[in-house]
Write a structure and sequence with these properties.
115 residues, mainly alpha
Length: 115
């Protein structure tokens, strides 16, 4: 038999065995804080957030674009993910993230606005 065919069969067999095994129980970690699903954000703060997100999206596009190629990305998803990292950052890292994402709101307002 061909070595690549044997490799494919071994991988398929391994996947079948893994799929048949019982799931491993995992502990669920939950926050004790109540989630605010509709945060109260002033129109001025919302406009600052939107402006910052738009600036980030357009700046990122300028960095990523390649002439004559299609480009698809989600600047909001990137901004949201980095906002979560920003929440746990401090010092120079926090300043760099805020600068790159054009975060101009105070932390407590920013986190509520990003929800």
């Amino acid at each position: 038999m061909n070595k690549s065919l044997i490799s494919v069969l071994m991988i398929a067999l391994s996947l079948c065995l893994v799929a048949c095994s019982s799931p491993v129980a995992a502990n669920v970690v939950k926050s004790d804080k109540t989630r605010i699903t509709s945060p109260q954000i002033t129109p001025v703060d919302l406009e600052r957030l939107i402006s910052g997100n738009s600036t980030f999206a357009l700046d990122l596009y300028q960095q990523l674009k390649i002439e004559n190629d299609n480009l698809f990305y989600s600047p909001y998803s990137i901004s949201l993910m980095l906002a979560m990292a920003y929440a746990g950052a401090n010092g120079e890292t926090k300043s760099q993230i805020a600068g790159a994402l054009d975060f101009t709101l105070p932390d407590e307002v920013l986190h509520s606005a990003m929800n």
